[in-house]
């Protein structure tokens, strides 16, 4: 056995193997602004996999805010928030965000991933317990791993299993961490029951609103507002890379909690602060998010149209309750092939395969924006119908307008090289090590 630490790198060939087969779906080079239509490889593609839910990533006012901030503050703060990297614009958006979500205070991290990493590892100490949903985002799991506490996990949205885990640690301080909207499944955390169990066992509730801020609730405040349970969320996280059209991550809570995180979170203290241009974009996006509720209404109208369209073709969209609509296609290689074929038809989507989902339940993850037009959506549905029929996933003898179309669940598209398929799973298992 080699003692060279790079040996694993030399043996890692699975990505190149997928590329050689012509179905590699990752690291697509986008050559334009992120809107409902992007330019990739010189061709316009309809985007059906973006998290740009309110369509603000190319909004002229957001761009102007970003440019204005860069002109005033320069391109970099040149240090961490803890030392020389905090300016008045950081503090302005922190106050604005805290007020919007109804919390006393907030802190802005450089990325959403860092906000979960920093807040969870800071709050969960050596003798504490953190309890997570099994389908929580990887950044939550990373934060748990960085903490010194014990990590317990409950079956997805299974409240009986959550109570079982809480009962196991009833004598310890516990933090329950869940996604508001789950990023692959598109369903919503059962916050009413989570809140009841948290009170029963004296635990605190942390909600990651990455995909729900700007999307859920009358005013777009997220899961707490959606269920009219805003005070029951003790800690709220939101990334700026989705509905706020930038990058960065907020943690909002009481003044005492935020002060503690500010002075103990390693990913905040030891990372350079968010550049002014990004903060300027957040500042303007937060205003638009609140001032233009019609964007959220259009987002939900588009979501309804797409869900009905996929159901009319017989697709299984699982438990989706949001603009994230997963399309179940079966075997992993079907997902790779289908994404490749959709891409050739100018529809940009994302495959999600095992172990990110159970084996044999690969999905095409689709998600929608307020700025998708009816023409965009009809194009996506038409191409899904065409490609799915070619692959034998749905019947070739029916049309999208018929509700009788059924999935052919026994159909498999597979490559003859089973070792290749096994290698793919091994690679992705390392990436999604929590599944």
Describe this structure in words.
- The chain has 435 residues and is α/β, with parallel strands linked by helices.
- It has two domains: 7-53 and 294-431, Aspartate Aminotransferase, domain 1; 60-291, 3-Layer(aba) Sandwich (Aspartate Aminotransferase, domain 2), CATH 3.40.640.
- The chain has 16 helices and 13 strands.
- The strands form three sheets. It has a seven-stranded mixed sheet, sandwiched between helices. It has a three-stranded mixed sheet with strand order 1-2-11.
- β6 (174-179), α8 and β7 form a beta-alpha-beta unit.
- The longest helix is centred in the last third of the chain and has 20 residues, at 293-312.
- It is globular and about 60 Å long.
- Residues 402-417 have low confidence and may be disordered.
Poorly predicted residue ranges: 402-417
CATH homologous superfamily classification of the largest domain: Type I PLP-dependent aspartate aminotransferase-like (Major domain)
Major beta sheet, specifics?
7 strands, mixed
CATH architecture of the largest domain: 3-Layer(aba) Sandwich
CATH names the topology of the largest domain as Aspartate Aminotransferase, domain 2
Output the radius of gyration. Answer: 22 Å
Counted beta strands: 13
Q: Count up the domains.
A: 2
Q: What is the highest CATH level, the class of the largest domain?
A: Alpha Beta
Estimated share of beta-strand residues: 5-15%
Question: What is the share of helical residues?
Answer: 40-55%
The helix/strand order is HHEEHHEHEHEHEHEHEEHHHHEHEEEHH
Q: What is the count of DSSP helices, taking H or I runs of 4+ residues? A: 16
